From TrEMBL:
A molecular-function term among this protein's GO annotations: racemase and epimerase activity
Occurrences of domain Mandelate racemase/muconate lactonizing enzyme C-terminal (ranges): 142-239
Name the record gives this protein: Mandelate racemase/muconate lactonizing enzyme C-terminal domain-containing protein
Family, per entry: Belongs to the mandelate racemase/muconate lactonizing enzyme family.
Isomerase keyword on record: yes
Length: 364
């Protein structure tokens, strides 16, 4: 029997499905519910720590694969590690997909902070427990986008991210939204890899000529085409942000080598958790890149961890509205939305006390 602190831990995976308040539509997919896998990590003193693996085409993992990875190789890895810190190091070397590793990584960070008796954000060095987020609007025609955008501004959101694709008239839609909301709100566009390089340049230039005044355009071309992303960045004045192109430190280094974009969107499900995300955030900022922390469609478990990471940045509009799409959150404790603000818990760790209706571990 392994005599280590990690051997006394209990790791389980739990399936969660939550209806969305409205369909979520991008250039890649359309969803009406959140499907996700939660990780619960318990120590011998009865503390429960949490992490999340969002399930989707974007993360590239299924619920079944997540179950097998968490309750198989990653459970074995955890039990073999002499300490939580060594488990975190070993986890980064695992061949499990990033989104699956992220759930266990975040739970380990949560537990370590709980054992130290301090909020995870404070342990990582955050000065504030408050983060501001944008709000996303799904791909749609101008007639549908405009009233939704106006309503969100009236609710207090100062930054809107509008999904665009090659099948809709993005220029007209964004021009009409700007006309309706006025000059003050911040508008972002997210293409989710929708365009070829030449088309991306044409659309962004037309948006510039129309004085839409976008603060950024996110991932206009396919993720693997960093040279193409660099070509777009050089051809337009609007800042371009890499999202799907940047998963690992190697991706970030290649983006910097090519000067492919001045901005990056870091997401825990891409980096494999907080360990590499913090490293990438610090490196990107040191190299002069602007960093935005993003999320997938996630429950308040994943949002709590991502907001913890975002709290390390100067105040800015982050991209953490994933939990606002849920019809109702089953998560007790953790980060809390108040309009465009996300308030992190001041309880130890992530501050999550439980999940309503979560009774059966996956695979049983």
């Amino acid at each position: 029997m392994v005599s280590s602190a990690s051997a006394q831990l209990s790791l389980s995976a739990h399936r969660l499905r939550v209806p969305l308040a409205n369909p979520f539509t991008t250039a890649v997919r359309s969803a009406t519910e959140l499907e996700t896998v939660l990780v619960r990590l318990m120590d011998a003193e009865g503390r429960s720590a949490w992490g999340e693996t969002p399930v989707s085409k974007v993360t590239g993992v299924s619920a079944e694969a997540s179950i097998r990875g968490i309750e198989g190789p990653l459970r074995e890895l955890l039990q073999a590690a002499p300490s939580l810190d060594e488990a975190l190091v070993a986890l980064q070397l695992s061949e499990q997909p990033a989104a699956i590793r992220s759930a266990v990584d975040c739970a380990l960070h949560d537990l370590r902070a709980q054992q130290a008796g301090e909020p995870l954000a404070r342990q990582l060095g955050a000065q504030s427990l408050r983060v501001r987020t944008d709000m996303t609007l799904s791909v749609a025609e101008a007639s549908e986008l405009v009233p939704k955008a106006v309503a969100l501004i009236e609710q207090g959101f100062g930054c809107l991210k509008i999904k665009i694709d090659a099948q809709h008239d993005a220029v007209t839609a964004l021009r009409e939204v700007r006309r309706a909301v006025g000059p003050r709100p911040v508008l972002r566009a997210d293409a989710n890899q929708a365009f070829e390089v030449a088309e991306a340049i044409r659309v962004i230039r037309e948006l510039e000529d129309s004085e839409v005044n976008l603060s950024l355009v996110e991932q206009p071309v396919v993720a693997a085409d960093l040279p193409g992303l660099a070509e777009v960045s050089r051809a337009v004045e609007t800042p371009v942000m890499a999202d799907e192109s940047i998963w690992t430190m190697s991706d970030l280094l290649e983006l910097l080598r090519l000067r492919a974009a001045p901005m990056v969107n870091i997401k825990l499900a891409k980096t494999g958790g907080l360990s590499q995300a913090v490293e990438m955030l610090n490196y990107a900022r040191a190299e002069g890149l602007r960093v935005v922390i993003g999320c997938m469609l996630e429950s308040h478990v994943g949002i709590s961890a991502a907001a913890t990471l975002a709290a390390l940045l100067p105040e800015d509009d982050q991209d953490l509205d994933g939990g606002l799409w849920l019809r109702e959150s089953p998560i007790l404790g953790g980060a809390e939305y108040r309009g465009s603000q996300i308030l992190l818990s001041d309880a130890p760790g992530l501050g999550i006390s439980g999940v309503r209706g979560l009774t059966n571990p996956l695979g049983e």
